[in-house]
Structures are given as C-alpha cells and as structure tokens.
Design brief:
alpha+beta; FAD/NAD(P)-binding domain; 7-stranded mixed β-sheet; 28 strands; 30% helix; globular
Length: 555
C-alpha cells in the first residue's frame, strides 16, 4: 500500500460468451490495459470502432513505474481527450542539470522556444496516468473493458485471430479481425507465437526509491556522476505529484537485488544524499536491470505488437511509454483505413517499418546514454570523467555529456509514405516530421494548432487574408474534401474568415508561419497522426491527391 495513493479496483463482469453461451467476434481486440493498450483502445473507439480490451488484473500498475511523459506523448494524449488532467496533476519541467561530483557541468532546456502548449516533460506516477485513461475509456464508450481476463492462447486463423481467455468464471474463446498486443516487456503473447526480441541486456543494476518528502528543490531533473554521497556511481532525482520524489541509485552488477530493496539498505543511501535532518517516508522500492531490444517486425499477419511488447529500452531518456504511445498513434489511423477498405493491408506494413525505425533510433540513443552512464572499462571511465571535468568550461565537452538523451519524436524522413519536396523550404517541418504546435485563434476562441488537427488527413493552406481567397482556390480546397479519403482543408491566415464554410485558424503570433516556413499559397498535407506527408509552395489538387494516394499505399 502507498501512503499517497489509493488503488482503484475495477469491476470484473462475466463475459457474454460465458453468460450467454455464445461465440463472439469483434473488429479489434487489444490485450493489455497499460498506457499503450488504453491509448490504442481509446483512439479506435473515438473513431467508431468497437474494441474489446483484455487485462489480466483489475487495478492500475503497482508502484510509480513510468515517471516522465514527453511533449509529443502529451500532444497525442490531448488528441484522445485525456492530456489536460495529466498535466494538471503532474509536475511540468523543461530544465535538466548534470553534476560531476559537486559541480554542475551541464544543463539543458527541453523547450526553449515560447508559445508551445505543452512543456518538454511532465512527471507523473504511472498509476495516475492509467487511472485517468481508464476513466476516459469508460467515458468514450465503445470499449468493452474486461478485467481479470488472462490470454492463454492465440491462434492465427488467416482471416481472423482466435484468442483464448481465462477468467474467474472459466475460459472462453473470441475471434477478432485484428489483435493489438500491448501486454508488456515479458509479453506472453509474443512467447506463445514463438517470437523473440533481439538486442542487449546491460550488466548493471539500479535501485528505484520513491520517497515522500517536502523539499524546496526546483522542478528540474538532476543527475549526478560520482557524487560524494554515492561515490563512483550515478544518481538521478525527479519530483512527481503528491510530493513524491523519485531517486535512482546506480548499484553495479555484483549486488543482491532482494537485499538492496530492504529498508535497512535503502534508507542510509537516501540519508547520505539528503542529510540526516530531512524527513522522508519510503513509498516504493524496486531494483531493475535494463535492456535495449526489439522484435524484427511489429506486424505478424493480423497480430500487431506495440509498446514494450515490441521494443524495450533503458529508462534513461524516458523512451518507454512515450514511444509506445507514439506506436499507437502511428498504428490506429492505418488500421482504421484498412478496416474501412480504403487502404490495402500493406499500409500496416508501414506501421512496422516506421516504428521499427523509431525503435532503432531510441535504442541507439538509449545505448549511448547507458554506455556513458555505466562505462564498461577503466579506459571508458577515464574518458567519461575527463569529459565531465572539462564540460563546465568547454562547449565541445558539454556536447559529449550524456546523462540520458531525452525522448523526442522520430522524424520519419525515410518513410515510403512521404512525398519528397519539389520546392525549396527552410526549417524542420520536412516530410515525415512530427508537426510543431503553435497558438491560434478559431471561431471558438483561442486554441492550439495541434488541437485543430488529427484523426484525419488535413490540408493547411496559408494566406494573408482568409476572406480574400479567390473562387478558384476555394473550389479546389472544397473539392479535396469530397474524395474517397476525405481531406479536410484548413486555411491558416493572418486575418479574416474563409468563405464557403472553410475552416479558418488565425496565426495570432506568426508562430505557424515561422515554424512551417510558410508564405501565402504554401500548402501542407498533414497525416492523421500529425506528421507532415507533403508540402508545396502552391496549391495543386492533382499533387495533393497523388501525395494522399502515396501516404495511404493507394498509389
């Protein structure tokens, strides 16, 4: 039990397959009600797809587990309707500081530019995240949440997947057109299917200690190399909600994990760090090793793997849940188009292609961080310490300091779904890039660009005065909304309201034009997951339709 949180107990209900003695077939079954499985289920349900969500427990995650949720994940959570509550409860931060022994040698700001809706990170215990997401799932409807439902067998039938489920009332089988697997790093379903993950397990251990205390430390990420209170090792400090502070102590490999979790071992470490006068209460303790691994492919027929079931990284950099939420963001719109018959099944292969690329990028950065934090030889450690010693005074050394490169979204620049630039652009909003946010005015008042976009293909057309659009442009924009795969036009202007009911947003501070290198006539095609599919300096309906066909594998 935790002193700061009361675990909910979700109601188990006898499934209709057992209550009514009938077989069930469903469009989508999701396995695992953690952040990733819940995100997938909510996104699908919001778009009208009935979902069965299976979980073998009846509560949220035990212990705080995941802590940091990055700006991009928060933007996805906003889109599915549960970001605001998390930001309000969580601890927002942008600044991180790195210390070598007793001196600060490096700091960074995750969001140095003004006018972004969300901070670089929030810290929030995973149990809150899951509780809020369960409430959202219940509010959305269209989701059959089945607790105490353990998947014991999965069989690919070619045109469907059969799932055998064990419950307190006995076992039953349901069929599904598509199975989304989000059952965690140990993934029983992955093992049932004889699939494995390839990669590396690091020979080091870290102690997680969550402590309740009142402290006036700034809301920042602090990381120490070789501090006097924990010599020759590293320590990480984060503040979470409810005055719970996360402390990670590097232990080395040759320790007994069970012994290290005992209060008589943990408390002296914390006192050495905080001092004898600081009052605190031990909330939760765990010891972990970490690994950087992934499956070769995330799609296996009608079975689609997401989150930790598909890939694992070390916790330094906050890449686990953040990456998993982005998996579902990439997957759901593609699955929806395939289920509606608007795109071929090979579109789902691009889910695997794009997200294995993202996983490899995460694994590379996570591995580099881990190698810097836990040097594997005396020579490596000497080099690492020399870098840290120089970093306070020399910029070249600061660039080499790596206390965990923090989670950022993948730029899918090599994706086969992109249409390459034919015109000259500056800035970062290249085809495949995650779209930058910016403040806007709409008919409903002040808002944010990413709040306008999502769940559908949209075309951003830039103008000085929306009211002055000529008839040919208006007709072209409206015509794009009538295709088999509709493209919603959005006029981004300095002033005015577009005619003929076209949606208009006002670039109140010029940030959109700045971040998208836009001038009158510039046109962007946005994917449902808020990545750039294509961009041009002038509106051309034929080019837009060709880019849309390419982005949906209909070319």
């Amino acid at each position: 039990m935790l002193s700061t949180y009361k675990y909910p107990k979700f109601e188990y209900r006898r499934p209709p397959e057992l209550a009514e003695g009938r077989d069930g077939r469903y469009p989508v079954v999701v396995v695992g009600a953690g952040p990733v499985g819940l995100a997938a289920a909510i996104d699908l349900a919001m778009q009208g797809t009935p979902v069965v969500l299976l979980d073998n427990d009846d509560t949220v995650s035990i212990g705080s587990r995941g802590v940091c949720y990055a700006k991009r994940a928060l933007e996805v959570l906003d889109r599915i309707g549960c970001g605001e509550e998390m930001v309000e409860k969580g601890v927002s931060w942008n600044v991180g500081r790195t210390f070598f022994r007793e001196q600060e040698v490096f700091n960074f700001n995750l969001c140095p530019q003004p006018d972004h809706h969300r901070p670089g990170m929030i810290n929030l215990q995973q149990y809150y995240l899951e509780e809020y997401m369960v409430k959202r799932a219940e509010a959305v409807g269209n989701i059959d949440l089945r607790w105490k439902s353990n998947v014991i067998a999965v069989t690919d039938q070619g045109d469907r997947v059969s799932v055998r489920v064990e419950t307190p009332d006995g076992a039953y089988t349901i069929d599904t057109d598509w199975l989304v697997v989000a059952d965690g790093a140990r993934s029983p379903i992955r093992h049932m299917m004889g699939l494995e993950v390839d990669g590396k397990i690091f020979m080091d251990r870290f102690l997680i200690a969550d402590v309740v205390m009142k402290a006036d430390y700034p809301t920042e990420r602090w990381f120490w190399f070789d501090p006097p209170f924990h010599p020759n090792q590293s320590v990480l400090l984060h503040r979470q909600a409810d005055n719970v502070w996360r402390i990670d102590f590097q232990l080395g490999w040759n320790v007994d994990p069970e012994e290290e979790k005992k209060p008589e071992k943990v408390i002296p470490r914390i006192k050495a760090m905080l001092g004898d006068d600081r009052e605190f209460e031990l909330e939760w303790v765990s010891v972990y090793t970490f690994q950087c691994r992934r499956m070769n492919r995330f799609r296996h027929g009608r079975v689609l793997f997401t989150g930790d079931a598909a890939h694992q990284v070390s916790p330094f950099g906050a890449r686990g849940a953040n990456s998993g939420i982005q998996d579902t963001d990439n997957l759901v719109w593609k699955l929806k188009l395939v289920m509606e018959g608007k795109a071929p099944e090979r579109l789902l292969d691009t889910y695997s292609e794009e997200r294995t690329f993202a996983a490899d990028e995460n694994i590379m950065n996570s591995t580099r961080s881990t190698d810097f934090i836990t040097p594997k030889s005396a020579t490596s450690k000497t080099f690492r310490n020399a870098v840290l010693g120089l970093a306070k005074d020399y910029a070249f050394a600061r660039a080499l300091v790596n206390s965990g490169r923090l989670s950022v979204p993948a730029y899918l620049t090599e994706s086969s779904l992109n249409t390459a630039d034919a015109d000259e652009f500056g800035g970062n909003m290249v085809p495949g890039a995650p779209m930058d946010d910016a403040p806007v005015d709409t008919a409903g008042g002040e808002s944010w660009l990413l709040g306008v976009l999502g769940n559908r293909f949209q075309l951003l057309y830039f103008a000085d005065d929306a009211a002055a659009l000529d008839a040919a442009t208006v007709a072209t924009l409206n015509g794009l909304a009538d295709g088999r795969i509709a493209v919603e036009p959005v006029v981004v202007a300095k002033k005015g309201t577009a005619p003929a009911g076209l949606r208009t947003v006002i670039d109140t501070r010029g940030r959109i034009a700045e971040r998208y290198d836009a001038r009158p006539g510039t046109t962007y095609l946005a994917r449902p997951d808020q990545h750039v599919a294509a961009r041009w300096r002038a509106l051309d309906a034929a080019r837009v339709r060709a880019a849309l066909a390419r982005a949906t594998c209909n070319a």
